[in-house]
Amino acid sequence: MNILVTGGAGFIGSHVSEHLAEKKEIKKLFLIDDLSDGKLKNLKGILNIDKVEFKKINICDKKIFKYFKKIDVVFHLAALSDVVPSIEDPFNYMNTNVMGTLNILEGMRKNKVNKIIYAASSSCYGIPKSFPTKENSNINPQYPYSFSKYLGEETIKHWSKVYGIKYVSL
User: Fold this and answer.
1) Does the annotation mark 93 as catalytic?
2) What's the pLDDT tens digit per position in 48-70?
C-alpha cells in the first residue's frame, strides 16, 4: 500500500507519519508539507527510511498532482489552523483549507486515488453547549477558520457523491 500524507511535518502529521512508517504493509510513504507551520525536525526519526519521501510543496500548487500517482490512500492533515489569525487573514484560510482541499481531491481524481482521511475540526460546531460535542450537533462555524474547515469537509463529501471517492472525516 502507498500512502500520501499532507501536512506530514506538522504536529499531528508527523506523529501519523511515524506510525505509518513502522507498518510493513506500507511500501511507500509520501509526505507533503510547505513547512509554513510544520518542521522537518519533526520527521528526523523517519526521513532516513527508504520508503519515506518528503516534498516541500503547498497543497494549493497544481504541481502536487504528480505526487498522487500510484497512491492508495491520502491522509489530508494540511491546513491553516487557529482562530485569531483566520479573522485577520480570512482569504489565506479559505484558500488553503478549501481550495487546497479541492486541489488534493482533484489530484486524487486525476490519478484514480479512491480514499481520503480528513482531519476535520470540532470548531465547526461553534461554542459547545455540552461536552463532549456529539457529531449530530448543529453546525455553527463562527470564525473563518472553522468555516473553512467545514467547507473543506463538505467539498470532500460532494466529491464522494459525484466521483465516488471514499472518505473518513475525523
Assistant:
1) no
2) 999 999 999 999 999 999 999 99
Of 29, 31, 49, 27, which is closest to residue 40 (Cα–Cα)? 31
**What contacts 41, CB < 8 A, 6 or more positions away?**
none
C-alpha cell read off for 95: 484558500
- 22-48, pLDDT tens digit by residue? 999 999 999 999 999 999 999 999 999
| Alpha carbons 36 and 141: distance in angstroms, whole number | 24
The answer to whether 55 touches 31, Cβ cutoff 8 Å, is: yes
Rounded Cα gap, residues 56 and 69, in angstroms: 17
Residue 75 is placed in which grid cell? 491522509
Count of CB atoms situated within 10 Å of the CB of 125:
19
Pairwise CA distance, residues 147 & 127, whole Å: 13
- Given 118, 125, 145, 150, which residue is catalytic? 145
Whether cis (ω within 30° of 0) applies to the bond prior to 90 is no
**Coil, strand or helix at 98:** helix
Is 116:165 a contact under the CB 8 Å cutoff?
Answer: yes
